[in-house]
């Protein structure tokens, strides 16, 4: 083993240990922030400028979790993060099979926030873009909040269990047992644990810059963009149906054996390392796809002639608190929400900032060593021992 390789291994281990210290309180919006990073990398210049104006200096990463943070102030928004399919395993699932009581669901919410953010509809070309949602909000949100909701909800749409089945309450009533001995709901595994375990066990991968539009297949991105430009309502409906079918084919069914899982039973489903790794790869694909589609929608809204007329501000005043519930666990019949601990004292904040500074320094050193090793080999290897998946659409390609 070369000296450089030993140094690199030690540095990576140090980063991993430090990240565990930093994340003891839980970073429950990491998935949404990753989606935001992909989206920002694909935003055109004009759209990016308009977004930062609307969000008062923030972007799709910083406000990625806003809709979840704001739930305590606007509890009527909780159902808008989900859409229910009555039965899993349907091979002929159509969008009409997915239930949306009184228009209060994920698909209809995206439509209404898109219609508002689209701005001036006096022109016939703009009117043709309207989706005419069945949702009726109890209060009128600001234009900026409509954009914030879109950023968050498009990410939710690509977490397939947000379009899960009533049979097991979006995966909350189905337990899984992981190789490390922990037991949790299928929903929590997909909504939180896979991401956090990846950050803790493979930090050099998570922070390696994979959240970029270049990681999305060009043909896939261009096809989605063309579909949105031709008929945005049909494209959104297709994406929603795709993710509901994904839940059936790859989460409620073992993608390695094609065996359907028993849902809602007392005994947990055994998840081995191979299945967990496959789910991690598929989750990363969903994040990349969510980010690319978020960018398509934001570019459509923010590059229009009406964009400068969109107003900033928020219906949530004062600004949302630092405390955040794990992504929607409180909606439905799930477990009580876990919350991020507040930093109530100056000493707590300084301690966290100090730890973060150490992580940044170690990370920079590790990156420099990694680049030296990569140059000596002529190319960089797979980040963190994880294979970065290509975003694909067909079931056959996903299983390969």
Automatic annotation (TrEMBL):
CDD domains: S1-P1_nuclease. Keywords: Disulfide bond, Endonuclease, Glycoprotein, Hydrolase, Membrane, Metal-binding, Nuclease, Signal, Transmembrane, Transmembrane helix. GO terms for molecular function: endonuclease activity; hydrolase activity, acting on ester bonds; metal ion binding; nucleic acid binding. SUPFAM superfamilies: Phospholipase C/P1 nuclease. Residues 1-26 form the signal peptide. This is Uncharacterized protein. One of its GO terms (biological process) is DNA catabolic process. Pfam families: S1-P1_nuclease. Belongs to the nuclease type I family. It comes from Perkinsus olseni. The keyword Aminoacyl-tRNA synthetase does not apply. The chain crosses the membrane at residues 349-370.
């Amino acid at each position: 083993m070369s000296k450089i390789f030993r140094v690199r291994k030690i540095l990576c281990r140090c980063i991993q240990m430090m990240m565990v210290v930093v994340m003891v309180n839980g970073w429950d919006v990491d998935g949404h922030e990753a989606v935001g990073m992909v989206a920002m990398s694909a935003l055109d210049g004009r759209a990016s400028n308009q977004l930062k104006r609307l969000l008062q200096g923030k972007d799709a990463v910083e406000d990625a979790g806003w809709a979840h943070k704001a739930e305590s102030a606007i509890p009527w928004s909780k159902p808008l993060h989900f859409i229910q399919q009555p039965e899993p395993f349907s091979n002929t699932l159509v969008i009409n099979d997915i239930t949306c009581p009184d228009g209060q669901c994920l698909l209809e919410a995206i439509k209404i926030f898109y219609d508002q953010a689209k701005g001036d509809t006096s022109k016939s070309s703009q009117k043709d873009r309207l989706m005419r949602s069945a949702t009726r909000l109890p209060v009128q949100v600001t234009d900026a909040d409509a954009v914030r909701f879109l950023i968050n909800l498009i990410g939710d749409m690509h977490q397939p269990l947000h379009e899960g089945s009533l049979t097991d309450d979006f995966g909350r009533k189905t337990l899984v047992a992981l190789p490390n001995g922990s037991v949790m709901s299928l929903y929590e595994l997909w909504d939180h644990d896979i991401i956090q375990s990846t950050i803790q066990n493979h930090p050099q991968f998570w922070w390696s810059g994979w959240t970029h539009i270049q990681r999305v297949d060009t043909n896939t991105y261009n096809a989605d963009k063309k579909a949105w430009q031709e008929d945005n309502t049909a494209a959104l409906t297709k994406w929603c149906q795709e993710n509901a079918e994904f839940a059936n084919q790859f989460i409620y069914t073992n993608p390695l054996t094609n065996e359907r899982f028993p849902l809602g039973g007392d005994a947990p489903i055994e998840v081995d390392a191979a299945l967990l790794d496959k789910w991690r790869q598929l989750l990363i694909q969903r994040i990349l796809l969510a980010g690319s589609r978020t960018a398509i929608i934001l570019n459509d809204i923010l590059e229009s002639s009406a964009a400068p007329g969109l107003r900033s501000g928020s219906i949530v005043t004062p600004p949302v608190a630092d405390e955040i519930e794990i992504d929607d666990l409180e909606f439905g019949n799930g477990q009580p929400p876990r919350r991020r601990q507040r930093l109530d004292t100056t000493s707590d904040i300084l301690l966290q900032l100090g730890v973060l500074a150490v992580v940044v320094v170690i990370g920079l050193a590790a990156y420099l060593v990694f680049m030296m090793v990569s140059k000596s080999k002529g190319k960089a290897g797979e980040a963190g021992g994880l294979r970065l998946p290509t975003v694909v659409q067909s079931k056959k390609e996903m299983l390969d």
